[in-house]
Amino acid sequence: MKWITREYPKIDRIATPWLIKRFVDVDAEFIYVPAREVKQKAVELDATPFDVPDVELSHHNDLCTFDAVIQKYNLKDEALRIMAAIIRGADTDAHHLAPQAAGLWAISAGLAYNIKNDHGLLTQGMIIYDALYSWAKHLQGVRHTNNPIDQLLLNVYNNYLKEQKAAKVPGWVTEIKDFIQDQLDINLTLSLSDVSNQLNVHPAYLSREFSKYFDNQTFGDYVRKMRIEKAISFLQSTSYSLSEIAYLTGFSDQSHFTRIFKKYTGQSPSIYRKMLKKSKTDTKG
């Protein structure tokens, strides 16, 4: 069979041909063409298109084309499932999905940098994915460092690195706290791009690194938490209606405000306010 996809492959368009060749179609022929030509050429050449929009074998939701092939052809090999998480993480920059994902991305990017011919790149990539499959199938429990003394020194060194890394907090962390606090009163539609522009930090990097320094919260969660804290201060010190507080803290309406407030505090704002009044009454009594 003929299979066709976009030119200039790096990860999914190398990993997927490997998967097809090794587990689906041993005689598969792969064709790389400019992205705009894939569907037209697929019809002309009677080839199966993959890794392009609006075709069966492509990215769907959080899954990539490698996943789609596994699902379509009902491939049950556990090693492929392990590989899929690594490939998905490398292909979508979701390196948290597997510890090997960042390494696969680095190798794939370097390989594509060195080899400009798509089929030459595929030939070398097949060797990489053969090796990754062998590791996933047979070698996951094998460590490179087996000497107990070497392993002990390695553990000490890694712990030292973690301590050093924990001690170095990027300058933007302090800046972003101050900026969000300053902007919350005047900019109720504060977004990640607003902050990245202000601090001159790339939004993709900021989104990926944000949770490390803000108690595992995303940017959106952190801003919502700040808005809830602001709402609590209004409930404690003003007689504003709940609709007014919702508006002043940047929520779309009172219903939205109530839902988020309850998620963070376990109580609706109306009950929270009643408990505050009761507490003050009991204190006076």
Automatic annotation (TrEMBL):
This protein's UniProt keywords: DNA-binding, Transcription, Transcription regulation
Domain HTH araC/xylS-type: 174-275
Keyword Nucleotidyltransferase annotated: no
Keyword DNA-binding belongs to the record: yes
Segments crossing the lipid bilayer: none
Coiled-coil features, chain-numbered ranges: none
Protein name: AraC-like DNA-binding protein
